[in-house]
Structure formats: C-alpha cells, structure tokens
Design a protein that fits this description.
By secondary structure, this protein is an alpha/beta fold. The chain has eight helices and twelve strands. It binds zinc ion (ZN). One of its GO terms (biological process) is peptidoglycan catabolic process. Keywords: Hydrolase.
Length: 265
Amino acid sequence: MVKVFIDPGHGGTDPGAVANGLLEKDITLAIARSLQTALLNQFLNVETRLARTGDQTVSLAERTRAANQWQADFYISVHVNAGGGNGFESYIWNGNFTNKQRTRQIRSAVHQAITSELALRNRGEKEANFHVLRETRMAAVLTENGFIDHHDEAHLMRQVNWIDRVAQAHALGIADAFNLRPKVENVEPSQLYRVVVGAFTDEANARARIQELKEKGYESYLLPYENQEQLFFRVIAGAFRQRENALTQQNKLKNEGFESFILAI
Ligand SMILES: [Zn+2]
C-alpha cells in the first residue's frame, strides 16, 4: 500500500496569494480534493490523507507532523504561485538527505506529467528550503500550479475542468513514480458528480453557506468558476463517481433544508 499525504497549501486564516477575485487556499483545496478522488478511483493499493479537508487553519508543523506520524510514503504540497510570472514549477528540499536521489526521481515523474498534460510554461525543477520539504521524513514535493495574479492563468483556475486536469496530472505522475497499477474497470479518468449547494457572485455568501453546512455536519468547499466574464463561487458538498450516490447526498441535504444541483463533468 502506498500512502500519499496531500497538503492543500494555506487555509483558514491564511488565504495564501490573493488576486483576480481568487484565494490560493480555495484553488489548492479544490485541486487536492480532486487529486484524492483521482488516486482512489483510478489506482490500486493507494491510500490518501489530506492535511485539511475544508477551510481549516493548519500550521506547517502540524501538517508535517501528521504526515510523519502516519508514515506516509509521499508528501505532495499543492500551491499556486504569485508575484508577476507565469507557468508551472516544482520544488524539493535543497538540503542534503539520504533519499534525495529517489525524491528527485519522484519529482521528475510528477513534474513531467504536469508539464506534458497542461499547457503551462515550464519554469523548471527547483529546490528550496521550505518547511514542508525539510521537515518531512518521506519524499516530498511542492508544486506551484500557475500564477493567480496572471490574467490568463487566473482565468484557467476558474474552470472546474482545469482543476481536475491539474489533479489528474498529479495523479498520473504519482502513479508513474510509485508504479501504481490502474484499476482495470476504470483506466480512463471518470466523470465526477459534484453536489453544488449554491452558486454565488458574492464570495462572502458562499463562505456563509459553507459555515451553515458545517453546522449541520456537512463538509464543503468553494470552487470558483467563470461564466461570461463573471466570477461565481460554487459550494461543493461532495463529489461522487456514481450518480446515485450524488442523488443520495442531494436528498440528505434537502432534508436539512439545502437546495442543490448536480454538476456532472
Ligand atoms: Zn502557496
């Protein structure tokens, strides 16, 4: 069993980079949730854990401690970039450590999968002294998936299928690096049925809905999307491979007073 610890960058009181009406913490969570679904749905002998499943504040030390305690085989930290550039880059720790060669191999597999799947400029395979790369006892890679302050890349981040493509590319790279075998009945990435509990033009209203759902015991997250130049925020309370499971979730939500629709992509 290969244990993959997925770290959606930032969260809670730390929004990460903010630009073009988007918060980094929302994009990283959406990619991470989609990556988890892709790995579990498409591959055998893989387990996943998320550093956060919703909009929680989790310190860097808590994230690496959780991965170390779980004895993960791989730590993937998902971010989006800012600062006036464009394109994709990945990082491993710049220190000297025993499994650096193996970490390099894994990173190259992930990096190449992403740069070949996505039409983003390749900024290169880099090294840095980031906490999550340094303090993890397993191979660890951090990805910076486009620039939130770049007009065209922010536009991409508002497309749910782009989020899924980024996640899928991560999954393919991880599968390649760890020789994960595909599930025979589902070699191709499958359609997901997402339960959408409201789409808002006002981000504060979307976050209020997430809070209402939380009070009723439903974890949800925000998925930005763009339609005719207008930015909307969808609240997603579950993503399912089987339509009937999405319908079950929809009925449960209805009994709690939440109207929803199913988004099949
Ligand atoms: Zn970040």
